[in-house]
Amino acid sequence: MKKLNYSKILICIEDFIIDVVEHGIETLGFYSELAYLLIDFNEIYSDNLFYQGYLGVFVSLRYDFNVNELSHKNLVSELKINSFGYYFELFKSFKFRYINSLREFRKSEIINTESLVRRADSVLSRYSKVLVVRVDLSYLREFHHLNNIDDFKKDLSRLNKLIQNGDTIFKGNVDYAWAIEQGVSKGFHCHLVLFFNGHKRKNAFNIAKNIGKKWSDITDSEGTYFNCHDPKQIRSYEERGILGIDMIHRNDPAEIANMRRAICYLTSPEKEDQYLRVKTSKKMRTFG
Question: Which of 77, 78, 132, 181 lies at 20 to 30 Å from 255 by C-alpha?
Fold first, then answer.
């Protein structure tokens, strides 16, 4: 059985449709590519998930054609019953849904950014120094085909419970935030920021490392992480005067300004290519 990358397939489908809608030109391999994408989509499709924007086109096509019973060659023949113009108009009819998905994403990210800054400022109002820890969580590439957005959400929920229950590695945590995104290479991933009482916790690198190990345990070693506190990276931030993670002091305006910029990466409305094309439900939260 072919190992299908859930996230990559959805992004490839979206890019394919965008190209057709923007250029309106039938390429030489149009029907063949459409068939391959439709077969892959059928393999990963789930009635329990909500597909956003242009992906609704493939949900519709999946029901129009008996994809389960057709080979690629036969599916191409079936698809060719309709003209390219038919598919162009069909794809274009979903453009509003796509634009609306991006509009809602940008709107949510602006609201989330404002919320995150308020929460960070609130923490600094209570503690004279705060240890800001950043770590990115995802799956190893060789396991992308085994984990869809529902699996990712369930694994994150397990991590959230550990944070809320005060698991040992989260001792001294006073607030945290997460943002779920989707990319081709990283697949489904999460940017996580945690705020610790700086009087009780130090060594952000080790905390992030332990969170990464915990994530690996939760995902049965299928998960991976990026430690944003790598010494070389921290030194680079310091040299450029933009270090906004690690220990932040309330009486240092420059550190606070850098912290706000650093944490707002989680909710940047400019990262449109990272928005979720699929959710567990229409109202699934992508930030918390």
Answer: 181
For the chain, the average pLDDT equals: 93
| Entry pTM | 0.91
Q: What is the pLDDT of residue 269?
A: 64
Report pLDDT digits (tens) over 249-287: 999 999 999 999 998 888 876 777 889 999 999 999 999
Name residues whose C-beta falls within 8 Å of residue 222's C-beta, 6 or more positions apart in sequence: 139, 140, 143, 146, 147
Q: Which pLDDT value is given to residue 174?
A: 95
104-279 to CATH, choices 3.30.70.920, 3.30.70.1430, 3.90.420.10, 1.10.760.10: 3.30.70.1430
Q: What are the residue ranges spanned by the domains of the chain? A: 6-93, 104-279
pLDDT at 183: 87
